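Colleagues,

For the teaching module next term, I've prepared a clean inverse folding example: a structure given as tokens, and then the sequence designed for it. I'd like students to try predicting residues themselves before seeing the answer, so please don't circulate the second half yet.
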């Protein structure tokens, strides 16, 4: 079905704004010469636990949850972002306590496992604790968490950076390239009088499916190192239609084309931080999961240009979940 005139205008506005931003970045990236790191091995965002045959996805999801619980983890949520993929979100006391010792450390309080059907097999993968601990600037590399997950689920290989070699220090100061955000450049998407009012607003809008959203989990964490309370909420984005640039399926269908799959990139997080609601910019959050994703050309077609409308669309959808108006509705540019 063809889009309406209003939908076409909205998508054109997002695309034109994204095009300007990405072309400037692409030009800079093309002129930049990368200096190889001295280290022969780096850290990567994901761990492939196993490739499984002879079982269906639901059975692997069930057994994975049981193994996590037996290893002392708490499964706090899960969802299927699209057909053939399941995400399991989990935490434990160590992760929660570590998160409170760092400024805005709440993002690191949960880890994700993914069960994905790919090339006739089922891949079980999970987020690499040391990689994400440094990306979110925690004060602990979480080596004991890594060991526990290796014992519980397995660890055949780490993956997710291509030929790019990234150290822990690199991740603590990570941004994709010129003009793109760092970890400490979040998008502030909601302002409230109290922390509780912010949490209640987000939960109400998630229960109503605002902007095609779905609640995946919630973690009430207490205060961070600066004394601000944190509540971490995982949000699945289903999109309001098939052309919605914010949707999990739209983005993953365009850039998650290598094997193993990066399904554990999902879901996105909203952090109620103090009395405000924030989220990591898509240009940071997506790039952390694909630090090697080319800007403009690849053999598979997976590029940042192929999702140039997505970072702004994600921000727009999460802003609506936080109780704000969409940029397209308000007619205001950010």
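(Answer key — instructors only)
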């Amino acid at each position: 079905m063809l889009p309406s005139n209003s939908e076409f205008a909205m998508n054109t506005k997002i695309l034109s704004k994204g095009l300007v931003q990405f072309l400037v970045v692409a030009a800079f990236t093309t002129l930049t010469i990368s200096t190889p790191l001295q280290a022969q091995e780096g850290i990567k965002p994901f761990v492939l636990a196993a490739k499984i045959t002879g079982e269906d996805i639901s059975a692997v999801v069930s057994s994975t949850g049981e193994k996590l619980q037996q290893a002392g983890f708490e499964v706090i949520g899960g969802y299927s972002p699209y057909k053939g993929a399941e995400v399991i979100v989990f935490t434990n006391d160590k992760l929660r306590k570590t998160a409170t010792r760092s400024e805005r450390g709440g993002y690191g309080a949960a880890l994700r496992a993914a069960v994905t059907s790919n090339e006739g097999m089922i891949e079980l993968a999970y987020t690499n604790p040391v990689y994400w601990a440094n990306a979110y600037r925690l004060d602990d590399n979480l080596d004991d968490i890594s060991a526990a997950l290796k014992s519980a689920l397995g660890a055949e290989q780490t993956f997710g950076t291509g030929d790019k070699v990234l150290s822990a220090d690199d991740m603590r100061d990570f941004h994709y390239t010129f003009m793109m955000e760092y970890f400490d450049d979040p998008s502030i998407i909601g302002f409230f009088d109290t922390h509780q009012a912010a949490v209640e607003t987000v939960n109400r809008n998630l229960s109503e499916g605002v902007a095609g959203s779905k609640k995946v989990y919630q973690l009430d964490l207490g205060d961070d190192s600066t004394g601000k309370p944190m509540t971490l909420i995982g949000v699945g984005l289903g999109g309001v239609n098939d052309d919605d640039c914010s949707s999990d399926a739209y983005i993953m269908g365009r850039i998650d084309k290598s094997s193993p799959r990066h399904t554990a990139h999902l879901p996105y997080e909203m952090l109620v931080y103090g009395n405000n609601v924030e989220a990591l910019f898509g240009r940071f959050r997506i790039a952390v999961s694909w630090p090697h994703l080319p800007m403009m050309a690849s053999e598979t077609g997976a590029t940042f240009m192929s999702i140039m409308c997505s970072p702004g669309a994600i921000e727009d959808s999460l802003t609506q979940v936080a109780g704000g108006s969409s940029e397209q509705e308000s007619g205001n540019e950010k």
